[in-house]
Amino acid sequence: MKTCGHLVVFQGAPGAGKMALLSHFKEAWHGKLECPLVLQIGLETLEDTSAAAWEIVKKIAPGKEELFRQQLWPTLGFSVLEKLLPPKRWWQPLCILADEIQNVTERHGTSLLTLHLGEHGLPIVTVAAGRLTLPRSCNKLCRRA
């Protein structure tokens, strides 16, 4: 698996069906080996790269979270995640779904930028949805990438 990093943002007016689209991805891909695993997380999780990385561990290696916490690192980041779960051990890529992206702040920037750039080397794509008006921090993310 070579694909890593990318951020796709669906924008639209309230009620335009953005959340329905994310839900469709989640339902359509559930349990299909030819489709990515889906992890739907809230923006509050993306405020902390460690929290986001632990959510990924729970999805990619269910049941191993406690083992990793006890034996390895209490704090986890994307660079450590690559060592714990190298891409060659992933059967499927991961698609992270995040809604209400218009509420993104500078606190979310590190996680979103890391996921977008894919410097961690992990097969993860992030799909986000939000209103038409995105804050300056999202524009900064686009320019920096």
Low-confidence stretches: none
Ends apart, CA distance between termini: 22 Å
Principal-axes shape call: globular
Distinct helical segment count: 7
Radius of gyration: 15 Å
Order of helices and strands: EHEHHHHEHEH
The amount of beta strand, in percent, is 5-15%
Q: Structural class, judged by helices and strands?
A: alpha/beta
Kindly state the mean pLDDT as a whole number? Answer: 80
- Any idea how many domains? 1
Counted beta strands: 4
Topology, pairings included?
Layout: E1 7-11, H1 18-29, E2 37-40, H2 43-46, H3 49-60, H4 65-71, H5 78-84, E3 94-98, H6 106-117, E4 124-130, H7 136-144
Parallel strand pairs: 1-4, 2-3, 3-4
Helix pairs in contact: 6-7
Key words describing this protein structure:
145 residues, alpha/beta, 4-stranded parallel beta sheet, 43% helix
What's this model, at a glance?
26% of the residues are buried. Helices cover 43% and strands 14% of the residues.
Would you kindly provide a written description of the structure presented here, covering whatever features stand out?
This protein is of the alpha/beta class and 145 residues long. The protein has one domain. It contains seven helices and four strands. A four-stranded parallel β-sheet has the order 1-4-3-2, with helices on both faces. Strand 3, helix 6 and strand 4 (124-130) form a beta-alpha-beta unit. Helix 6 packs parallel to helix 7 (136-144). The radius of gyration is 15 Å and the shape is globular. The mean pLDDT is 80.
